[in-house]
Amino acid sequence: MELPEKEDVMDKNSLHKQMPVLLTKSRFRRALECPTKLYYGEQPNYANQSLEDDFLAELARGGFQVGALAKCYFSNGEDLSDLDTGAALVRTRELLHQDNVTIFEAAFQYDQLLVRVDILVKDGARYHLIEVKAKGWDSASDRFLNKKKSGILSKWEPYLCDVAFQKVVLEKALDTGNIDSYLMLANKQARAATDGLNSKFRVTMDSGMVLVSGDLSDEDLANELLIKVDVDEPVNFIRTKCDYHGQSFESYIATVADALQKGKRLRGSIGAVCKKCEFCCTTEDEALGRLSGYRECWKEALGWLDKDFKDPSVLEIANFRNADELLAQGKAKLIDIEEADINPASDGKRGLSNSQRQWLQIIKVQKEDGSPDLFIDELREEMDRWTYPLHFIDFETITAALPFTRGRHPYEGVAFQFSHHVVQEDGAVAHAHQFLDTTPGHFPSFDFIRKLKEALDSDNGTIFRYSTHENSILNLIHRQLRDSELSDKDVHELCTFIESISHSTKGSEREWRGPRDMVDMLELVKRYAYYPATKGSNSIKYVLPAVLSDSAFLQEKYAQPIYGATGGIPSHNFTDWQWIQCKDGQVQDPYRLLPRMFEDMPENIEELLSESDSLANGGAALAAYAKIQSTDMGDYERQELRKALLKYCELDTLAMVMIFEAWQEVVRG
């Protein structure tokens, strides 16, 4: 189970006064990522931006519910999760006197090593170590080793290392090699047997504990949505063939345990991995006097001073895979990079290729040029092909570990919200439609697509999205419709609509490209517009503030409270709203003008919960939907969260409109 990890909570509160600090699974995982992180993680004076133990992140992944469901598949298991580690160690030893027993959160300590095992099954002299993870598994296509069986696939390695660490401790603590290891994962090929299964695992707000409904029935559990996957082969591969920071797996465990015990700072290597380092300071952290582990590492490795961090580094180059090579050559800053290091070349398409865009980013820094570059002729040609009225849409979706309705698969996508702005040929803008269905236990995707059809079917205007996400979701709903119990007429009408505004993706039973196939504004940004203020990012969360700061037209228009005003721009969620607000002479990011969805939500939750630059691939909206579906909350709080979701999604499509308006103004000259 992903979170919370009770061994860390225990060590930091009570046990650290009674015994040496022990190496737990989460601490070792941190040391695997980077040796120096082990030290920073134990020092309260270092800033830590990690969401690893954050309630919202785990709620969005479904980890709490998956962990609770896993226990339902094992009868008569004794749950030690409420016990602190000392008591759990004692109770585990007592239970293991039995020949056959199942224990949840069994505790084992060997020397300086400590683990809590999600599920331990003792069957005579044999033990089954089961680690539960909120991650999907498709037995038809997934595997742990690469095709040549020469290495572990990177997406699985952290999970397998968790199991390997636990297996090492259990073998030593139990003095036996009779341990079989498993991952228990969400079975993507399984289907929920009943409606409302998700809602029968309610997550409490304060602790993340799951309240399992008394109405949970044998029928609910008839189709096992979790699958136990044997991982002995990849775990043995890790223990015998893999190298971790220059050592074997078990040697590295010993090194890390010793360093933790002595409070020693292990030295890691700087590189691309530093880009996601959580031990960096925000402005608020600096004001509070917290230290930056990230800066300490780079100062030590490169001899940098504080002033050096003002210069953009190679880690900021967008979609760049050779940062480690440049760092090895002593080229840490963009001002150090030469054209040959990037080798910018055309990919045969109009506008900027990826490498050309990277080089443009670098030379802008080297020339201290903060002005944007727009390919005006290419944008004009694109615009000449568009048909008015223009439609801008954004979807919010979730992939739930436990399905909300019968017949759905674990982690099957659910479309629960969209926003829709319209721009007329005369320039009139309106927030025309929106949809949000957060009804607990209800599958909203078919109602979603019906409402989207109503919103877009009245004309043949060009439709815009931002990234591939919307097209992928439409393909998913297309498959869901054909597999549904809806009438043939309903399925045909809705599938025909989907085919008219999208194109088929890889693996589709047949190919199509609709006459109104959506235009991807993200691709237009990548090809025809570069804003230095985005620091290479193409996410709309970065592009919008850059466009607003550059466009005098937008600043003049939206500095007035015309949005949602009588006689102004119609809006479903805003009244007399002024989007352009300045602070210290700088245009503020519109997203930061909105109310935060959660009081305890970090400023960087969008980055930490998203899987890519795609706006719709997660973030606060995903966490909010999961929270509404899976937690006990009052009607007032639920309504406030719904209002926030509606405002955020409306801004997502307005952002697209604003980018279009800025480009149109430039093209018109």
From TrEMBL:
Domain DUF2779: 391-539
InterPro entries: DUF2779
Name this polypeptide is given: DUF2779 domain-containing protein
Species this chain originates from: Microbulbifer aggregans
